[in-house]
Each structure stands twice: as C-alpha cells, then as structure tokens.
Amino acid sequence: MRKLRGMSREQLAEKAGISRSHLSAIKAPSMVRAFSLEVLYNLADALDIAPGELLSAAASPPYKK
Predict the structure, then answer these.
(1) Residues 6 or more apart from 8 whose CB is under 8 A from it?
(2) What contacts 63, CB < 8 A, 6 or more positions away?
(3) Which of 2, 19, 27, 64 is 20 to 30 A distant from 57 in Cα terms?
(4) What is d(CA 1, CA 53) in angstroms, rounded to the nearest whole number?
C-alpha cells in the first residue's frame, strides 16, 4: 500500500509517528513483530485507508514483489 501511495518508508513512518526501523520490523516477512492497535490505526490513517483494508492488503498484497 505504501508503494501504491508513492510514499517512501521514511515518509510513512514519519506520518504514522513511528521510527523507520519499527516500520521495517513490522513489515519484514521473516520476523514477527508485535505492534499496538494505535500503530495499526496510525499506519492506516497515514495511508488514508481503513484499518481493515490495511490488514486485508497485508494478507494478500495487491502488487507483485
């Protein structure tokens, strides 16, 4: 979703109020990183989508890697 919005990791992290390293850890497929509902809502707000949409997009990305 970040890439679809044309945002860098730094921009998304700043807009969501978290560090870039925390964002990277949340996103890493080989790591399990806990995060709060507040972070989920902040990320969704930063991406201008509903939190449920963010979770759905994470489960099946709309883009090819």
Answers:
(1) 2
(2) 3, 4
(3) 19
(4) 10
Total number of residues shown for the chain: 65
Closest listed residue to residue 24, CA positions, set 34, 15, 13, 40: 13
Which pLDDT belongs to residue 35? Answer: 83
What are the DSSP calls for 7-40, one per residue? --HHHHHHHHTS-HHHHHHHH-TT------HHHH
Question: With left for phi above 0 and alpha for psi between -120 and 50, is residue 17 left, alpha or beta?
Answer: left
Please report where in the chains the tokens 């509903």 appear, as a residue: 50
